[in-house]
Amino acid sequence: MFVDSHCHINFPDFAPRLPEIFAAMVQNKVSHALCVGVNFEDLDSVLALADNHPNVYASVGVHPDHDDDAEPTIERLTELARHPKVVAIGETGLDYVRLTGDLEWQRERFRTHIRTAIATAKPLIIHTRSAAEDTLRIMREEGAERAGGVMHCFTESQAVAEAAMELGFYISFSGIVTFKNAKELKEVARIVPMDKMLIETDSPYLAPVPHRGKVNEPAFVVHVAEEIARLKNIPLEQVAQATTDNFFRLFQPAPVAAA
């Protein structure tokens, strides 16, 4: 069985296709998915999916790209994290690509999420783009290792991966690792130990080969696993078992039956 450790299947375009999406998960042996929150406005749809599907979990957070969203506080995030299907804090982190100028608010928001994760004893889901140095610095300053978590949709260097793993974080690979031009990322995937690795789709984005350019969905996470198996020259079953075990070790959800 496989687990999609990061997806956004609450997005409106998915609604008419949800039965098809869950059927495809079963067909492709994808047992569970984590639907990740990116703002407060759409959080109800994330929680509804988790409430209505025993094999879907949720997270709460405000993405660093959302500069026009209500600013999160430790109190509000903590209250939301009490929901029984919420297993993580995030998506949080730093993104210096889409937004420019004075981004101190983004760094303060990141600190708020780290402090909430520590207070609630829930792991962090961290997003970083062109901001690895500041991301790692703030993680160290705030003691993010006390919460642990995952560097999601990893696209950084081996050095960044090693620094994150030293802080107790997992490295999650998305469909990008299947792209022909992702040569450096493929080398990172070869090096990251299986006991520190997760796999994800980040759907609806970044569909892996052979579905590149299409709308991504949790069933496609098997193609990420296949590429990891190829890069490491290990059986696909080993990737499935390790990444599934890692998911449940990190997020520690309450036991539920797969759909």
Could you write a compact summary of the structure shown?
Helix content is 39%, strand content 17%. The chain has 259 residues and is α/β, with parallel strands linked by helices.
Q: Radius of gyration, Cα only, in angstroms?
A: 17 Å
CATH fold-type name = TIM Barrel
In CATH, the architecture is Alpha-Beta Barrel
- Any idea how many domains? 1
Our estimate of the beta-strand percent is 15-25%
User: Quick one: how many beta strands?
Assistant: 8
Report the biggest beta sheet as strand number plus sense, adding barrel if it closes. 8 strands, parallel
Overall form = globular
Q: Which class do the helix and strand fractions yield?
A: alpha/beta
- What is the chain-wise order of helices and strands? EHEHEHEHEHEHEHEHH
Quickly name the level 1 CATH class: Alpha Beta
CATH-level-4 superfamily name: Metal-dependent hydrolases
Low-pLDDT regions:
none
Number of helices: 9
Question: Helical amount among residues, as a percent range?
Answer: 25-40%
* Mean pLDDT score: 96
Could you give the order of strands across the largest sheet? 1-2-3-4-5-6-7-8
Give a verbal description of the structure.
- The protein has 259 residues and is α/β, with parallel strands linked by helices.
- The protein has a single domain (2-251), classed as Metal-dependent hydrolases (TIM Barrel), CATH 3.20.20.140.
- It has helices at residues 18-27, 43-52, 74-80, 104-120, 132-142, 158-166, 183-191, 221-232, 236-251; strands at residues 2-7, 30-35, 56-60, 86-95, 124-129, 149-151, 169-173, 197-199.
- Helix 4 (104-120) crosses helix 5 and helix 8 crosses helix 9 (236-251).
- It is globular, with a radius of gyration of 17 Å.
- 48% of the residues are buried.
